[in-house]
Amino acid sequence: MSTEQHGVDAYGQELARISHHQREATSARLVVFQALAAVGITAEEADDIVSRLEAGAVAGAHTWISESSAPRGSEPRFADGWRAGVRDIGSYPLRIADTTATAGRGRATSNAMPLAHLRPPTSPVAVERGGADSDGAG
């Protein structure tokens, strides 16, 4: 296998991992919005809470990048270049965190729309017994 082919395969694997994490995050976000709605948190408050959590996660990535250091024993010029590169790269997650903290408006409502279609309809019998989730305990 050529080095170029290996690079393409590795990149494809990275994209698959990214896609997996994005799907998992979407599912988790849906659960969080459901849970917050169930305890009476408004959609606007839920958006704010989730946006701040996500911004914090991105800020955590910034910290990991910022704490990166040049390999032990590197020449001073290499280490200086390493630090400059880390600062440049680290500025991107920080900007993403800043944007994420304020850009999550409306997601709770838009995530609630599919939920209405996923929930089974409430039967008249369940309503008479006290609700769709009633177990007779009361």
Short description:
The chain is mainly alpha-helical and 138 residues long. The chain has helices spanning 3-38, 43-66, 76-102, 107-118, 124-129.
What does this structure look like?
- By secondary structure, this protein is an all-alpha fold.
- It folds into 2 domains: 1-40; 42-104.
- It has helices at 3-38, 43-66, 76-102, 107-118, 124-129.
- Helix 2 (43-66) packs antiparallel against helix 3 (76-102).
- The termini are far apart.
- Residues 115-138 have low confidence and may be disordered.
What is the CA-based Rg, rounded? 23 Å
Percentage of residues in strands: under 5%
Mean pLDDT, to the nearest integer, reads: 79
Regions with pLDDT < 50 over 5+ consecutive residues? 115-138
